């Protein structure tokens, strides 16, 4: 791993811990939550595998799994997961020419696992 990749990886791990800390705090306060996690990427992706987004039943969120419309779609799906209790595997992918419109800045595909916490 290059020095730049190592630095980026360390920063990603620190951000993931912050999101998980937020999830623990929110859960302790009685909020119903879902956790979205980037489990796989192909090509260019704005977030690393292991990136997290915690969402509560009102749509409040902390962290990031992508950005743009993809993140909005993950939040909407997470609210459904909180209500139904069933986890979901989401996949998003676009061709380079449409990538900017949906938040995947350089094309690519991502898979995001969404699960209810608690």
Record keyword descriptors for this entry:
single chain; 118 residues; alpha+beta; five-stranded antiparallel beta sheet; 3 helices
What's the arrangement of secondary structure elements?
Elements: H1 3-28, E1 33-42, E2 52-56, E3 61-63, H2 68-84, E4 88-94, H3 99-102, E5 108-117
Antiparallel strand pairs: 1-2, 1-5, 2-3, 4-5
Characterization of the model:
The chain has 118 residues and is of the alpha+beta class. The chain has three helices and five strands. A five-stranded antiparallel beta sheet has the order 3-2-1-5-4, with helices on both faces. It is globular, with a radius of gyration of 14 Å. About 9% of the residues have low confidence.
- Secondary-structure-based class equals alpha+beta
Strand order of the largest sheet: 3-2-1-5-4
Helix/strand order: HEEEHEHE
Radius of gyration over C-alpha positions, nearest whole angstrom: 14 Å
Mean pLDDT: 82
**Morphology:** globular
Question: In percent, how helical is the residue content?
Answer: 25-40%
Poorly predicted residue ranges = 4-14
Q: How many E-type strands?
A: 5
Sheet having the most strands? 5 strands, antiparallel
Number of helical regions: 3
How much beta, percentage-wise?
A: 25-35%
C-alpha termini separation: 36 Å
């Amino acid at each position: 791993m290059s020095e730049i990749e190592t630095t980026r990886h360390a920063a990603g791990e620190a951000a993931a811990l912050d999101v998980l800390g937020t999830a623990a705090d929110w859960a302790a306060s009685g909020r119903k939550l879902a956790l979205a996690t980037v489990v796989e990427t192909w090509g260019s992706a704005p977030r690393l595998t292991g990136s997290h987004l915690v969402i509560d039943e009102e749509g409040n969120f902390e962290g990031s799994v992508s950005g743009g419309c993809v993140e909005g779609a993950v939040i909407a799906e997470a609210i459904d997961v909180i209500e139904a209790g069933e986890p979901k595997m989401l996949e998003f992918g676009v061709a380079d020419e449409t990538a900017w419109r949906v938040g995947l800045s350089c094309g690519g595909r991502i898979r995001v696992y969404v699960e209810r916490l608690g």
